[in-house]
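debug: dumping io for the single-chain case to check the tokenizer round-trip. Nothing else runs in this session.
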Amino acid sequence: MTLRRTVTSLLLRTLRLFGPGRRPPMPDFAPQRIAVMRFGGFGDVLAVTSLARALREDYPNARIDFYTDPASTVVLEHNPDIDNVVVSPKPRLGANPLTVWRNIRRVRRWSATPYDLAFVVHHEFDILLLSLFFRARFRIGFDINERGFDFAFTHSACTYTSDHPGIAGHMSRHFTAHQQQLLHAFQGRARAIANPRIEISADETARAQAFVRERGLEGDLVIVAPGGSVPIKLWPMENFAAVARHMIERYDVAVLVMVGPAEAEHAKYFENMPGRFAFDAGGNSFRDNMAIVRLARAMVGNDTGLMHVGAQFGVPAVALFGPTPPTIFGYAHLGHRILTADLPCIPCNAPHCRLLADGGARDTAPCMQAIEPARVIREMDALLQRPAAA
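debug: decoded output
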């Protein structure tokens, strides 16, 4: 055992002395106030809406408050499973004692009126420690590798990393199932997995329909989602352009490429595209983009936020995965066709590619480069040759 691991184990055992202690499952408990805490990461927050949905189904009379950061509120708007969204930057410890004290006070203010249940859907040590100061009758969260990171919780489920034998089972479950392990830990019984939920308002739907109509994209709309904030997860843009051209020329579908403002320069790859085509680089809010995705017949794209959105709306898609494990983050169970490379190093689940000098910041990662355009075209052909959904 390394010195660092020994010190960590001693610290965790010490912190457990200040925790609430382990409690038995509470299958008959009827909470009135529930807090769910998840900061950062569009896909992560979307996944946790499945937990909120399960809580609403099991405790229909409870008030559910969702704590998240400003950037993630976009996915929670109009969600009937959530009564109130508390918006705040992610609380952190930091090196400054004053910062630590301020964050402790912030967490205490959030729970000035104690909750019955608090679900802390995080693995970061900062939030786990600050959870000790969040007032709730029962606090539920994750342990890591069965090492005692659940010192702040009355009930916990375990998540595993690569150095633990439990990683095989962990990698076989979708991330929505991981979130609902927490509810299982509290109730002591298994339940059906609830899917995440995204709700679109009538005004957002009307704006989406107007956007599509004004650009001549009505009928058989296909969304291309080639962007993303993590370079290692990106398929070459010129490949997406080749797929878009094939779809237009063979099927006479309308194609809309959706990227963010920082990716506007990639319009050059789609010049002189035939037929009904549009390239949009952040011209709409993300909420309006979600409403446009809802109108699509099919999608193709990287492992990005828009692909998560399409899965929740039942839009058939071809999703390209590189470093991230598709069994956890993909949507094959909701009809997506997942394409990966046949390389021994994937899924590495790493933010940077160790095979590239720049980590994949400028050059395409081998796992994405190895996905041939012909494979993607074949899968899109299979989608588009099926009758469109009514």
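debug: round-trip ok. The first helix runs from residue 3 to 16.
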